[in-house]
Amino acid sequence: MTSGLDLVVNLSEFTYKQRKEIYGEKEPAAYVYQVTKGAVRTYKLLSDGRRQIGAFHLAGDIFGLENGETHRFTAEAVVDTTVRLIRRESLENAANKDAVVFLDLLSKTTRNLEQVENHLLLLGRKTSLERVAAFLLEMDQRSAAAGVLSLPMSRRDIADYLGLTMETVSRSVSRLRQAGVLDFIGNTHREIVIHDRRQLAGFD
User: Fold this and answer.
1) N or C: at which end does the chain have fewer Cβ atoms within 10 angstroms?
2) Same domain, 92 and 27
3) SS3 of 64, please?
4) What does each of the 204 residues of the chain score in pLDDT, given as a tens digit?
5) How do 51-58 and 62-63 pair as beta strands?
6) Domain of 66, in residue numbers
């Protein structure tokens, strides 16, 4: 998904409206995707009707690269989102022929695996406050903007990602605000100024 890759394969670009499904669980994994603008959530619906979000994909991230022939999760646009599509077969052929493409794909895949591992640790070992703090730190590190953390996802999304209730997420964020770690811009509570990243990391 670099300029080198652009020269080797043909990329198509599509825009999906907010909450629009990009692909569904168990659908054929014929394409690999890269977010160019917006955000994507990948999730599973559990047998009891609950939703577990596995990952959030932001600008520059790739998703939809599977080991098998079908998708394990459903992918959905969090906000109006533009993605680039490349046929999986074309990407595999390009990676086999071009070392630059292969190394870039390996780097992005490794980064995705690291995020998955961090998510598993977060769900298995951390308290609710630690989970929220870790999430905010992750989003801050992945954000391209300086100074203000702009969250595209809702509190419901965050709760379903962290395995918490919306009320617990709200209480944890309020505790961090009361501690002077962060504050909000506007009424949506999605624009966050982090005053003390070291202190926030201490809650992680």
Assistant:
1) C
2) yes
3) coil
4) 444 445 445 578 999 999 999 999 999 999 999 999 999 999 999 888 889 999 999 998 989 988 889 999 999 999 999 999 988 888 777 777 777 777 777 777 777 777 777 777 777 778 999 999 999 999 998 886 667 899 999 999 999 999 999 999 999 999 999 999 999 988 777 899 999 999 998 986
5) unpaired
6) 3-123
